[in-house]
């Protein structure tokens, strides 16, 4: 058997074949975090991607390259989905092969403005099932980790989602997404209006989908919804939330589809279903259609 085949069959061989992968992810997330933190206050060359609100800097590309080249060297047979490689034309398809799903800087707009809410996110899936997630909040040096069946942690403190079921006591998180056309804005603002009319406590937008999802995993908010986020915003955070006892589903109320660019996450089923009933769909192209 060739080395790559052995690697791919690791899960069937028993033990914890992905433990080493997760350790490497933690090291790389910390290393990337140091690069991002240093670059935060420096001058940046900023370009746009799918819209004027979808930004990329040299640091995004540099960090993604650092992470993926280190992983390729260590795990040559694994697959990679990265935000900036996808923007540059790589296919964004999740197969059964061990696959790393990477956002080098989540919160690029924050990063550009020196707003210190930025993270690096590394998710890992095998047989299309998410195995672990590592998210590093670069400025606050908070490391969020989740391993399927083994819990979720922030700097080694176990995470637990909120158990709130009453919408009138809910703090809801969302993000705006990249589209700014009138129809999208009408739906986005309409969704906020519906939730405010339903008398939720509050709605917050922090500029980083992954860190908002980490707040949810920590119990600091009760629910999250978004249209227009990507698999690299969601992969690592999904494991962390589920391992913290939360729910991550599609905005229709059905099972999550990682490539669908939409999500509801919540501490309780009641809160997730409240959002599913309240919000209108905003259409985005699937990640695997690009
Ligand atoms: C984006 C941010 C933003 C959210 C977008 C994400 P990026 O990620 O999380 O808050 O609204 O949907 O794609 O581009 O900063 O990596």
TrEMBL record:
Q: Which residues bind Mg(2+)?
A: 83, 103, 105-106, 233
Q: Name one GO molecular function term.
A: inositol monophosphate 1-phosphatase activity
Q: What is its EC number?
A: 3.1.3.25
For the protein in the UniProt heading, the enzyme class is: hydrolase
Pathway field of the UniProt record reads:
Polyol metabolism; myo-inositol biosynthesis; myo-inositol from D-glucose 6-phosphate: step 2/2
Please provide the Gene Ontology terms (biological process) for this protein.
Answer: DNA repair; inositol biosynthetic process; phosphatidylinositol phosphate biosynthetic process; signal transduction
Q: Which reaction does it catalyse?
A: a myo-inositol phosphate + H2O = myo-inositol + phosphate
Query: Cross-referenced Gene3D superfamilies, in alphabetical order?
Result: 3.40.190.80, Fructose-1,6-Bisphosphatase, subunit A, domain 1 (3.30.540.10)
Requisite cofactors: Mg(2+)
**Keywords for the protein's UniProt record, in alphabetical order:** Hydrolase, Magnesium, Metal-binding
Concerning InterPro entries, the annotation shows: IMPase, Inositol_monoP_metal-BS, Inositol_monoPase_Li-sen, Inositol_monophosphatase-like, Inositol_monophosphatase_CS, MethylDNA_cys_MeTrfase_AS
Q: Which family does it belong to?
A: Belongs to the inositol monophosphatase superfamily.
Q: Which PANTHER family match?
A: INOSITOL MONOPHOSPHATASE (PTHR20854), INOSITOL MONOPHOSPHATASE 2 (PTHR20854:SF29)
- Protein name, UniProt field: Inositol-1-monophosphatase
């Amino acid at each position: 058997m060739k080395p790559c085949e052995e690697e791919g069959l690791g899960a069937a061989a028993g033990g914890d074949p992905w433990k080493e992968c997760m350790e490497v992810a933690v090291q790389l997330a910390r290393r990337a975090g140091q690069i991002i933190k240093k670059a935060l206050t420096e001058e940046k060359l900023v370009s746009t991607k799918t819209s004027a609100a979808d930004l990329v800097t040299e640091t995004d590309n540099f960090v993604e390259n650092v992470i993926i080249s280190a992983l390729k060297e260590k795990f040559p047979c694994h697959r990679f989905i990265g935000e900036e490689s996808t923007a540059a034309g790589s296919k964004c398809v999740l197969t059964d092969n061990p696959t790393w799903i990477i956002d080098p800087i989540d919160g690029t707009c924050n990063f550009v403005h020196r707003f210190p809410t930025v993270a690096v996110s590394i998710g890992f899936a095998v047989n299309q099932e998410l195995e672990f997630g590592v998210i590093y909040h670069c400025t606050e040096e908070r490391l969020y980790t989740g391993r399927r069946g083994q819990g979720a942690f922030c700097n080694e403190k176990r995470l637990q989602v909120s158990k709130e079921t009453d919408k009138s006591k809910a703090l809801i998180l969302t993000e705006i997404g990249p589209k700014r056309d009138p129809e999208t804005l009408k739906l986005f603002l309409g969704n906020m209006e519906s939730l405010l009319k339903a008398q939720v406590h509050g709605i917050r937008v922090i500029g980083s989908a992954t860190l908002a999802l980490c707040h949810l995993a920590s119990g600091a908010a009760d629910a999250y919804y978004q249209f227009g986020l990507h698999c690299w915003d969601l992969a690592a955070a999904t494991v962390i939330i589920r391992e913290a006892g939360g729910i991550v589903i599609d905005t229709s109320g059905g099972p999550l589809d990682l490539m669908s660019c939409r999500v509801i996450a919540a501490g309780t089923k009641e809160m997730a279903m409240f959002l599913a009933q309240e919000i209108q769909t905003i259409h985005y192209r699937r990640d695997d259609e690009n």
